[in-house]
Amino acid sequence: MLLFLLAYLGGILTILSPCILPVLPFVFARADRPFLRNGLPLLAGMALTFAGVATLAAVGGELAITANNVGRWIALVLLAAFALLLVFPALADRAMRPLVGLGERLSSKGSEDRIGGSLLLGVATGLLWAPCAGPILGIILTGAALSGTSSTTTGLLLAYSLGAATSLALALLVGGKVFAAMKRSIGAGEGVRRLLGVLILIGVGTIALGLDTRVLARLSTAQTFAFEHRLARALGMEGEELTTRTGGTLPVEGVLPPLDGAITWLNSPPLTREQLKGKVVLIDFWTYSCINCIRSVPYVRAWAEQYRKDGLVVIGVHSPEFAFEKDPANVRKAIADFGIRYPVAVDSNLAIWRAFDNRYWPAHYLADAQGRIRYHHFGEGSTDQTEAAIRSLLAENGAMRLAAKAKVDLKGASAAADFASIRSRETWLGTRRARNFASPEGLRDGEHRYRLPDFYQLNFWGFEGRWNVEEERSVLLQPGGKIAYEFRARDLHLVLGSASGRPIRFQVLIDGKAPGNDRGMDIDAAGNGQITGQRLYQLVRQQDPSRERLFTITFLDPGAEAYAFTFG
């Protein structure tokens, strides 16, 4: 009963996820009609369709993906047709008669009490909504993969979809009141109907061209996921230890989840867990601007090369933290820069992340030749322990003469952190997770002009110039803008990008002077550098990290995107 309640509550939280935004215009398209005969059938069609598609996902992996893509295009055609009927009500009777058999006139007054049209619209909308799922649904699907599909699995999926329908029903009822008020005040019922049809056509075109993914990529889903995880813990789901306890035979921690849902694979065709049976498999969750991942990649790369002939398969799962990391072109460039040759699943929709119920960058999972997870480690470090676990499972699988331990080449940003000197921690430069902002204006959403503070404390920072501050980034609107940060660490990194895609020049000062020998790998001794892509930039590597320093970066061109400071 607890699992059904968890699934239902997880579905309710779907309304908080950015991926639900393209669905809402289609729901509100019937918000001005009686709820029981229009809104309720629409929501029922959505819920049943989602449960069916999600059940296919639990049953059949690749088949489900194919079915869902076909269903998505069918949905777009149906929704475009409904939109045209809203724009041109006179066509409704003639156009809809072959489709629904009874010839409901969906956009005329006579269609307000017909259920079939709303149900069909709900089915079409449900096919678009089906990919929208949070970690709780991922847990349900993983459980289905472990125990096999059953009526219980379908019931859990239906509970999830009913929860989402409940939250959408509330939105629909509120929307109905808004539309009714509009009709009473300006008598523009037909105008509103036509406007909704135009908006739906715009939405269909946006989704068909893939532009919705780019827009939604600007909206971070991390906050929603964190809320769902807190709910899961409140309902009795405990967290895991950061590292498997070793010292004997490695324990069995579960079954390797499916690797379905990546938007593409790099360095390899798509791999399935069935293909991997008989191999020891290392799954590495990473993202390319994460400094902890950058420092872990050389070890993973060395293990892949050293133990490949002994039967080890390494798979990188690139699960993004920031919106720009969802772009496959950026990921492709990053793996070339890092010299990664092993397969990488581009998990931009976090489908594999959810299947593993993962919450860490980096995270390593080791599976034995029977497809059972035997070891995990979350976060940076414990490389000797992880390599020992790799060697143990390879020996268990019959490797007679293992290769010598891997030699790892560490340089630049991938060099091990100087943890003894670090007194500064990761700091985000958007409103969602920002802290210790010292500019007198205070950090605010939207476009504002800021001044640097008159004095600093350790780990406090500020802006100068005109910035547009968003949830996960801040964008400089005029040249000459600055960021200053009082830090203590050997290395200072800053995740930067260019809003225009053009190179952006900048200059770094430490305590008001050129960095000289304290420069990072991405600037020269005078502090000059250039933003050439969306990634992590190493700007400071000090010779003496024992004291606090004031870091200042001045951007000579507008359009700089600033995401987060990290230290090493």
Automatic annotation (TrEMBL):
PROSITE patterns: THIOREDOXIN_2
InterPro entries, per the entry: Redoxin, Thioredoxin-like_sf, Thioredoxin_10, Thioredoxin_domain, Thioredoxin_ResA/DsbE_sf
Annotated transmembrane regions: 6-28, 40-61, 73-92, 119-146, 158-180, 192-211
Keyword Cell wall biogenesis/degradation: no
Keywords, comma-separated and alphabetical: Membrane, Transmembrane, Transmembrane helix
Keyword Membrane: yes
Domain Thioredoxin: 244-395
One Pfam family matching this protein: Redoxin
PANTHER family the record matches: PROTEIN DIPZ (PTHR42852:SF13), THIOL:DISULFIDE INTERCHANGE PROTEIN DSBE (PTHR42852)
Protein name stated in the entry: Cytochrome c biogenesis protein DipZ
